[in-house]
Structure formats: C-alpha cells, structure tokens
C-alpha cells in the first residue's frame, strides 16, 4: 500500500517536470535574445562593410522602418519622455528633411507625382521625418484665401501629402505659418487686418493685435480638426503627424526684449494644446540666444541675432512647448571666406543647444533646418559634405549617450525634375552620391540604435557605457 508520502510525490511530480521544462525554455529564450542582440552588433559592422554594395533603398521596404516598431499596427504617436522622443515607449532618434512645397505640388495632377517621388527619395536614404508647410495664406493656390475661408481643393492636396507620408512611413512636422512673406505668413495676416479696418503699422502687429491673433487661432483650429479625405482620420488624431510648429523662424524686430513674442508663444501654445493635447508642439525658432541669457549671446553667429526678439532658453520654457528647435546656416550667418571657422561654429552651435536642452530645458532639441547654398561660390560640394558630416556626427554623439539631440532635418530634399524650385540648397539624392552616402549611413546608425535599445529594453536594460556605444556606433567612421 502506498504511503501518504508516495501519494504526495506522485501528485506533484508532473508539476515539477512542467516547472523544470518552463525554466529550461525560459533560459533558452534569454540565450536566444542575447544572440539576437549580438547579431545587431554584427549587423552594424555588416551594414558599414556593405554600404557600397547595398543601397538603403534596396532594403528600405524590408526592415528600414520595422526597427522602430512602426508597422501599421504599431504606428503610434511620437511622444516625449524627458529629453528623448519615444514611440511605443522606445527611443526615436531620427534623420529627416524639409520639402516645404509638397501641398502646392499636390494640388495639380500634373505635379502631384513629385510628392510621391520626394517620399521615395527620402526612403532611399532612410529619412523618417519630413517638415513641410500646412499653410499658404493668400496669393496663388492659397489654402486660406481670406481669414477662415479655405480652398477645398488645396486642403485635399494637404490631405494627400499626409496620406502619402503615412504610406511611406514618414512622419510630418507641419508648420502653421511663416515669419517671412513667402506663402503669405504674418505679413498676409496683417494685410487682412488692415483690409478689415484695423489700425496696424507693422507686420509685428501679428503678434499682439487681438483680431489678427484670432485669425491665426482659427487657422490652427481648421488644420487640427480637419478630417483627411483620403484616410478619414482627423489630423489631431493622426500619428503620421510628428508635431505642430507654431511658425517658421519667428522674429519680432520691433521688440528686442522678446516680451511680445514670448507672450504670443505662450498664448498660442495653450490654444494648440486645448485642441490637441496628444501631438507634440514646437515653436520653429532659429535658436538665437536672447536677453534672458546674456552670457550666451556670444554663441550667436553675429550680434544682430541677439536683437531679433527671440530667446532660445526663455521661449522654450513656455508651457506647452514640448521640444526645442534651432537652425544652422553658416554660409549666410558667417560672412567670411571658407575656413575652419564655419565647421567649428557648427560644432559649437549644435553642442551648446544640445547641452542647454538637456541640462537647462530638460527636453529634446531638433535642428529643424541645416544647409549650404550651392549658389555661393565660396562653398563647393566638398565643403557641403564636410558640413553635413559634422551635423550628423554631432547628433550621433548625443544619440550614443541617450542625449537631447533628437534629430536633424536637411534643407532641403528634391526629386529630379523640380530644380526650378531650388533656392540653392536642394539635394537630389540620385545626383549626389557622396552626400547620399553620408545621409544613408547616418540613417542606418540611428535606426540600429533605436532597434538595439528596443531589444535591450525588453530585458530591463539601462543606458550603456560610452565604451559599449563606441563598439556599437563607431562615429569616427563618418
């Protein structure tokens, strides 16, 4: 007769076998995951070794975007976590571009194809973010013909741009108006105000006149609440949109103290967030330091930059602003012949904005525009490639430590056949193999970083030591 002890053993023996089986499988899965992570290390080396034989576009439709968890079921909203952008809880560092005229080209069927070609060119070098205009105030092919009066065909063209970006898994930063007269901007709003009988004396009244501010607020609401006619998704709910931008390169020369522009930023940030609390919001500033940080004024490219009414630190402390922005134009900001001073300025300018964003503001920073004009005889292709390499390297150094350097956007990317729109800064990847190689390599490294961190975080990782990142992302190869 079996004893009570025998019965107990027989009862629990099957459970013990199952327990040991689960433990063995769990340990095997960890080993497999570690092997996968090791493969990512090897893939980095393999990608660099094969860069001359395997163009980015050849595998772009395969794993280019899947590393970021951006398959259709994971096409989540970009969010901010401390000083990083995140998607689905994982870091999202990006390489991006500007093409401001996408909406205008999408209006006409004869030029709409160029919008698709831009995104295809972007995919060929691994870009994941595009900055473009969501405005055209008055004038030819105006989106907003007069305050709150819109051309539906132009609005449908913007719908197409957003839907096409989603198709190619490229996120959009949509700028809502312009400081400059191109495509209307604040000057057009002031013209509308004058036509309505307002006593306005300066384009900078855009920032202070209640009626004109009301025009702008109505435009913001019209864009954010628009239901896309291609996707049936409201703009404020669409994760294709990375962020809203209040204005392209705001300046207020009439008030060097910066008070007028600061008040406008605070008011409009609150307005945007009251309509759309989900998307990120940025100002669109050039990054000039202002009166709130007199010790930083020497970092500006010239003395005039500190008197245009903007203030990098103060502006980005406004409630509702999620990340900082700065632009980089050494060719037009520094007016001397080609010397190492230009490249040194780029390094110093970027590093100080990254450091201030991380240590003072506690938020990511993007370099929303950077470029060199081919129309300036002082700057040749060799200089442009060196300049772009410097921008990429500086961002990558921040990425390697999980820093605030969230992304940089080239001004600007063009497809073939659109050169008549070129302002001198256009890069056509198919015609610029050396530049394309630099941009593609930077994209690959950022995506491999995002991927590696994503895999590691499944097992509760923390930021790796600089020695480890040196192995994974050897930045000096740029």
Number of structurally distinct domains:
1
Name the CATH architecture.
Answer: Alpha-Beta Barrel
Q: Can you identify the CATH class?
A: Alpha Beta
Q: Report the CATH topology name.
A: TIM Barrel
Largest sheet: 8 strands, parallel
Structural class: alpha/beta
Q: Mind telling me the C-alpha Rg? A: 25 Å
The chain-level mean pLDDT equals 85
Share of helix among residues? Answer: 40-55%
* End-to-end Cα distance: 78 Å
GO molecular function, one term: mannan endo-1,4-beta-mannosidase activity
Organism: Phoenix dactylifera (Date palm)
GO biological process, one term: polysaccharide catabolic process
Keywords: Glycosidase, Hydrolase, Membrane, Transmembrane, Transmembrane helix
Write the layout of secondary structure elements.
Layout (H helix, E strand, L loop, with lengths): L3 H47 L5 H9 L13 E4 L2 E4 L2 E2 L2 E5 L3 H6 L1 H16 L4 E5 L10 E3 L2 E2 L1 H16 L3 E5 L9 H11 L14 H15 L16 E5 L13 H17 L4 E3 L29 H4 L8 E5 L1 H4 L6 H22 L3 E6 L10 H20 L4 E7 L21 H25 L8 H7 L6
Parallel strand pairs: 4-5, 4-13, 5-8, 8-9, 9-10, 11-12, 12-13
Antiparallel strand pairs: 1-2, 2-3, 6-7
Helix pairs in contact: 1-13, 6-7, 7-8, 11-12, 12-13
Would you write up a description of this structure?
46% of the residues lie in helices and 12% in strands. It has 478 residues and is α/β, with parallel strands linked by helices. It has a single domain, classed as TIM Barrel (Alpha-Beta Barrel), CATH 3.20.20. The chain has an eight-stranded parallel beta sheet with strand order 10-9-8-5-4-13-12-11. A three-stranded antiparallel beta sheet has the order 1-2-3. Strands 6-7 form a two-stranded antiparallel ribbon. The longest helix has 47 residues, at 4-50. The protein starts with a helix and ends in a 6-residue tail after the last helix. The model is unreliable at 1-71 and 458-478 (pLDDT under 50).
